[in-house]
Design brief:
By secondary structure, the protein is mainly α. The protein has one domain (13-119). The chain has five helices and no strands. The protein starts with 12 loop residues before the first helix and ends with a helix.
């Protein structure tokens, strides 16, 4: 089992739990995260720039389960706030900053996910 502090930006306890310690399942989940996470964040940024709040809320909602595998609290919190703001049409000016939080953490998270993938 991976210790909590093996990584600085990810916590794979949930991924470990969901894969039931099966390395091949962990590999599949990690590959999915590495492939989908950057695309989803790019999609969210373009929806934010287009002020498509309804769709942004929907994509952000779907991201919640993906981010639970990553285990990065800042990304999870930013995404949750984006979903709430977009869904309720409130504090929309904050969404750009929250998106920047996601993008900044994405690079760090991706590096650590790729390191973990090479260990399997």
């Amino acid at each position: 089992m991976i210790s909590n502090n093996a990584y600085q930006f990810i916590n794979l306890e949930y991924l470990e739990l969901m894969s039931d310690g099966d390395d091949s399942m962990k590999k599949v989940l990690l590959e999915m995260l590495i492939e989908e996470l950057p695309d989803e964040i790019v999609k969210m940024r373009s929806l934010q720039q287009a002020a498509n709040w309804e769709e942004l809320s929907s994509v952000s909602h779907k991201m919640k389960s993906t981010l639970s595998y990553v285990g990065n609290d800042m990304m999870t919190d930013s995404n949750k706030t984006i979903e709430q703001h977009a869904k309720n049409n409130i504090s929309l000016e904050e969404i750009s900053t929250l998106m920047t939080n996601l993008e900044t953490n994405l690079d760090r998270v991706m590096t650590e996910l790729k390191i973990e993938l090479t260990r399997l």
